[in-house]
Structures are given as structure tokens and as C-alpha cells.
Amino acid sequence: MFHSDNPLSNMMVLETSKANAILTVLQGCNNLTRLKKIQAHVIVNGLQNHPAISNSILNFCAVSISGSLPYAQHLFKHILNPQTQAWNSIIRGLAQSPSPVQAIFYYNRMLFDSVSGPDTFTFSFTLKACERIKALKKCEEVHGSIIRTGYERDVVVCTGLVRCYGGNGCIEIARMVFDNMPERDLVAWNAMISCYSQAGYHQEALRIYDYMRNENVGVDGFTLVGLLSSCSHVGALNMGVKLHRIASEKGLLRNVFVGNALIDMYAKCGNLDGALEVFNGMPRDAFTWNSMIVGFGVHGFGDEAIYFFNQMLEAGVRPNSIAFLGLLCGCSHQGLVEEGVEFFHQMSSKFNVKPGIKHYGCMVDMYGRAGKLEKALEIIGDSPWQDDPVLWRILLSSSKIHKNVVIGEIAIRNLSQLGAVNAGDCVLLATIYAGANDEQGVARMRKLIKKQGIKTTPGWSWIEVSDQVHRFVVDDKSHPDSGMIYQKLGEVTHKATMAGYVEDKSQFIFHGSCSEECLESSSTYHSEKLAIAFGLAKTPEGTSLRIVKNLRVCRDCHEFTKFVSRAFNRDIIVRDRLRFHHFKGGLCSCRDYW
Ligand SMILES: [Zn+2]
Ligand SMILES: [Zn+2]
Description:
Blueprint: H1 7-27, H2 32-44, H3 51-63, H4 69-77, H5 84-95, H6 101-113, H7 120-132, H8 136-148, H9 155-167, H10 171-180, H11 186-198, H12 202-214, H13 221-234, H14 237-249, H15 256-268, H16 272-280, H17 286-298, H18 302-314, H19 321-334, H20 337-349, H21 357-369, H22 373-382, H23 389-401, H24 405-417, H25 423-435, H26 439-452, E1 460-465, E2 468-473, H27 482-498, H28 516-520, H29 527-538, E3 545-549, H30 555-567, E4 572-575, E5 580-584, E6 587-588
Parallel strand pairs: 3-4
Antiparallel strand pairs: 1-2, 1-3, 4-5, 5-6
Helix pairs in contact: 1-2, 1-3, 2-3, 3-4, 3-5, 4-5, 5-6, 5-7, 6-7, 7-8, 7-9, 8-9, 9-10, 9-11, 10-11, 11-12, 11-13, 12-13, 13-14, 13-15, 14-15, 15-16, 15-17, 16-17, 17-18, 17-19, 18-19, 19-20, 19-21, 20-21, 21-22, 21-23, 22-23, 23-24, 23-25, 24-25, 25-26, 27-29, 27-30
């Protein structure tokens, strides 16, 4: 060992080696009891004010999962003139804690009281807290400090700003910050994609990918998960398949997050074979199983949903409430009432999963579809959710399918008592009256809609054509190809008519079935008709058309699509607000029940 004649120097060497030994022990520390023992040792050796040691102890308590935030705050209080690193530890720990607002309190204190200035980490942890508690004003204020302290060119800080503005719904500002970044790493690109995706700007999210390709930026698992989520929402299967290929090239198919996102994308785009292929080649967690069960369930494949449910039990995965949702949905759509009822009971009795409103909704729907409307009414009575409009609305739908005026009126009476009647509900009841040839009932509903001025939700449809997602609204004239689309629609309508389609011109006065879109416009140019005409014009013969619609499909459009699928020999898959319709050869998978 090194010796010096100077006793002071000797002591310092000894102290340094002690401090280093303690720091090494601290690095390996993984629980609080052990940490406190080390801390005792630190005090015995008089090293409690050693900056690296006190920072290391504080950081463990504030950030580690086996730490303790209250203890970290206690320690922090006793630090004289805390350095930036100490502030960062406490802000970081609080930003990811259940009360992120406290991180902002510390940030404020740091700015006003401390001699230590904020750095990259201070800003990014504080922005994280602002994002989590949706504190837009504070985010703007932090942005100001970032500019003042010269951090506006820092890639980590800017990425934090993008996330924070995005999370607060200011997508345009997020994009502005992103565009102004002098350089962007993959984390920044991913943040921008996830901002768009989470805000429902799916076309924009997918466009970022083109931008990435132009800039020669590669992708990772996070990029793929973000993009796939947008593909799922807008039904962009072609793009999804392309991302699947990229995942495979990059060896990311065994990444469970990417795998789950792919399964979800395939299932939501109505391609269950694709979902199955991914499922068979990946490690599985509870989400994987749920995605398969829900995927098959919402497509009406009850038997398959049950099969995957049993496989999941065999694999030793505990079913959660989502698994049961998929299961019940499948049973409901396939008409497996007995099985559905059995699973519904097993949920709480055998698996200790408390049924939620969505599970009750499935049960009401299941009895309703099967024509057991009294049973459906009973289920609502037995549920804790009689004061929620959701279940009554499902009952109203079932009453429409079975043309049951009595139950339909009970449903609307309850909705009206809850102050929750919307245009769609009135349309449903009017349709029931029309089916029963009750002209007065129809007139009453029309008056109700007029009198209350009930707002309709604007209808729109999305279609993916060669990697681009196009959006249409009723009577849309905004598309650059608008002239061509209307011309094509004329031709398509003519051909469908030759195949037997009769345009239901009376629908807007409530004969036959109708949707909210019919209230919006008495014309026949509903958004999905425009999307279909566009799809037929722009894709080669035989290509399937995939359309996503935010409202229910109306009777007229449903008939139209059936005849188009036959006349043009195309598979047309429409995902509306509630379910999938696979149109093929003049028939629909929903068997006209929706
Ligand atoms: Zn329509
Ligand atoms: Zn259908």
C-alpha cells in the first residue's frame, strides 16, 4: 500500500479508499434495510457529507423500486446546499410517483432557492411530471426556462417537450418543437409518433414513418408498436403487413410488445390468420392471449374464443377481465347463450374477477340477440349499472333487431330519465316504430329530435389505398380526386342496381333502418359510399377493401355494400362503431343483424 510521510495525506488516502469501498457496496445494494446498514457505516466513518455517497444514497431511496420516497425526502431535507444531481434524484423519483405534482414543487424550490441550476435531467423529469398531471401552463413556463438557460437545442429536453405538449393535447406545438430540433434521435421520432397516435391523429402518425424513411432513420420496437397502433385504428392492413416484414427483418418478432401490437393490428383489420401466424411464433404474456380471445370474440368466432381461453388456462395464465370480455363477446355474437351464461357466472365464482359494465353489456347483448329481451331487461335490473345509459342503449338496439316496441319504449324511457337520449337513440326507436307501421311513433321521434335539437355525431370513414389513409365525411367534396370519385360512385351505383340493389330513398323519413348519418344529410352520399367508390377506382381488381367507420352502418349503405361486393367481386370489410361486417358475394357476415 502507498505510504506517505505526511499524516494528513495518509488520512485522505485512507478516506478516499473507504469512500470508494462504500460506493461499491452501495452500487450492489438492492433493499432499504441493507441501505440503512450501509448508511450507519457511512456515519460512523464521518462520510455523511461526501457528495458522491450522499447522492448515491438519495438516488437509491428516490428512484429505485425498493427505495422509499418519504425517506428520500427526509434525507433531502438534511442536505446542505443540494447540488443539481440531488435535486434531479428527488424530482425524478417524484415525477414517476403517484403524486407527480410534488416533483413540480421541488423544481420550483430549486429555481427560486438553490444556487444549483437545472440541467438536461432536471428539465426532462419536470416535463415528465407536467405531462402526467396535464399541467400545460407549467409546461409552457418550463419551456421558457429551457430557452433562457440555453437548453432548447438539447435532444433529450426537446423530446420531453414534444411528449409533454403532446400529452396535453397541443399536438401542433409538439410538432413545432420536433421540427425545430437541430438533430433527432430515434427516441425523439418515437415520441412524435406516439403523440400523434395517442391523440387519434393516425394518418399523421403513419406519415411520420415516410418522413423517417426519407431521412434514413431506422426503426426499433417502440417505433413499430406506435405505428402498428395507428394501423389498428384506421384499418391500414397493407401498412401493417409492411411493418410485420420490417419486424421480421430486424429480428423483433420475439419482442412480446411488437408481437402483441401485430396481433392487435391483424385482429382489428379483420385478418385473423395473420394474427394466428404471429401468435404461433412468439413468447406470450397475458396481453397476447387476451388479444387472441378478443380478436376472435369481436369477429363473432365464439368457439375459437373459447378454445384460446382454455389454452390460456392450460398455459397457466390467469384470465383477467379483458379475457372474459372477449369470451362473452364471442359467445354473444355466435349465439352461444348457455356457454356465455356459464362463463359469466364462473368469472366471479371461480376466477374471482368482478364483472364490469362491459361484461354486463355483453350479457344484455347476448340475451337481446337471442330474442330473450325480458331476460336482457332482468340482467340490467340485477346489475349495479341501472343508472348508466350504456346498458339501456344496448337493450334499445336489441329491441330494434326484434322489432319489440314495448321493450324499446322501456329502454328510451330509462335513457330519458337519465337525461341521456341522443340522436342515435331516437333513430333506433323511430326505426322500431316504422317496423311496426306506427306512423305516429315515427312522427313523435322526429319531433323530439327537432325540439331538443339533439346533436348528431359527424360520420366519417377511413380507407387505406396503397399505404395512404384517406378520410371521407358525408357529401365530401374536399378530396383532390373528388370529381372522379363522384363519377365512379355513379357508375358503381348503376352496376349495383343492375345486380339488384334498390336505393332506399325513404330512409331519412325513417322507413327501414337508419343511422345518425341519415339525420345529418338526406342525400345518399354517406361517407362509406365515397370510400368504396374511391377504393374501387384506385385498387386493382380482386383487392379487398377495408373501411373503418365511426358510426353504425345504415341499412341503405349495408344493402349497397352487399350488392357492390357481388357486382365487383370484391371482399369489403367494414368496421363500424360496434362490429365488423365482412361483405362477400352479396352477403354480410353479420347476417343482417347489427
Ligand atoms: Zn349510410
Ligand atoms: Zn353486416
